[in-house]
Amino acid sequence: MITAIVLIQAEADAIPDAAQAIADIEGVGEVYSCAGDVDLIATVQVSTHEELADLIPGRIGKVPGVLDTVTHIAFRSYSRADTESAFSIGVED
Predict the structure, then answer these.
(1) Which residues form the Transcription regulator AsnC/Lrp ligand binding domain (predicted)?
(2) Residue numbers of the domain that contains 53
(3) Which domain CATH number covers 61?
């Protein structure tokens, strides 16, 4: 599975509608509105790079109100939940 983080610039008045439209696209996990350099951040999971190539410019980039996207492909996931579950394998409460 390929995970990508997509940074999205959007028209200010279109942010809520664009965020919901992006969240409704298959392959998109979560969409966050945020402060800072970008307006929205979406997490995407697909099986192939070809799907990613179709999804970002072909679907997300064409949502009304979306001005620009920058995509970062994740190599590994580091999270407290992953670490805690790895150390608890075989341990019963």
Answers:
(1) 6-76
(2) 2-87
(3) 3.30.70.920
Q: Is 22 helix (H, G, I), strand (E, B) or coil?
A: helix
Query: Could you tell me if residue 16 is inside a domain?
Result: yes
Q: HSE (CB half, 13 Å, CA atoms) of 27?
A: 22
* pLDDT per residue of the chain (93 residues) written in tens, 0 to 9: 999 999 999 999 999 999 999 999 999 999 999 999 999 999 999 999 999 999 999 999 999 999 999 999 999 888 776 655 555 555 565
Instruction: Count structural domains, the chain.
Output: 1
Q: Where are the beta strands (DSSP E) in the chain?
A: 2-10, 28-33, 40-46, 66-73
